[in-house]
Amino acid sequence: SSRSSAGGNVTTTAQLRGRYTHDRDQHFDKFLEAQGVNWVLRTVATNTKPDMEVNVIGDKWTLITHVAIKTLTWHFRIGKEAVIRGPDGTDQQAIFLLHGNTLVQENIGGVASNVKVERHFTKKGMEQVMTHLPSNTVGIRFFKRETTTY
Questions:
Q1: Is 43 helix (H, G, I), strand (E, B) or coil?
Q2: Element (H, E) at 40
Q3: Which residues, in sequence order, are bridge partners of residue 141?
Q4: Please, what are the domains in the chain?
Q5: Rg of the chain over all Cα atoms, to the nearest angstrom
Q6: Fewest CB within a 10 Å sphere: which of 1, 72, 127, 135?
Q7: CA-to-CA distance for 61 and 13, rounded, in angstroms?
């Protein structure tokens, strides 16, 4: 269905859909360090080059993150609480909000509740801005949009 309860959502979600490949990071190690992640796990995390997929069908969103050793698949609806599995295998409550071309992830309770994630989408790619709220430490992962040929 192409109906939309708010003007522009169909166009916006169509612009966000797609595959994104990791390009580079900015201060990602400092962000992980602020969270208390040990050196070994920080090194592993900073060496991962994830690919991401964003799918939207109606009001059902799917965010898939592919890394060499695992795939994380999150299903959610904008404005509704969802359970997502973190990279460490633990479940986390989160709510996703959409502000223009920015998908905001607010974690509720649990170990990741001190982190806010904003995914800013452009025609060329996506910037995943992660903020450790207590220290205001920001790490950014940059992704390029894959061009699709039909």
A1: helix
A2: helix 39-47
A3: 25, 128
A4: 9-144 (2.40.128.20)
A5: 15
A6: 1
A7: 9
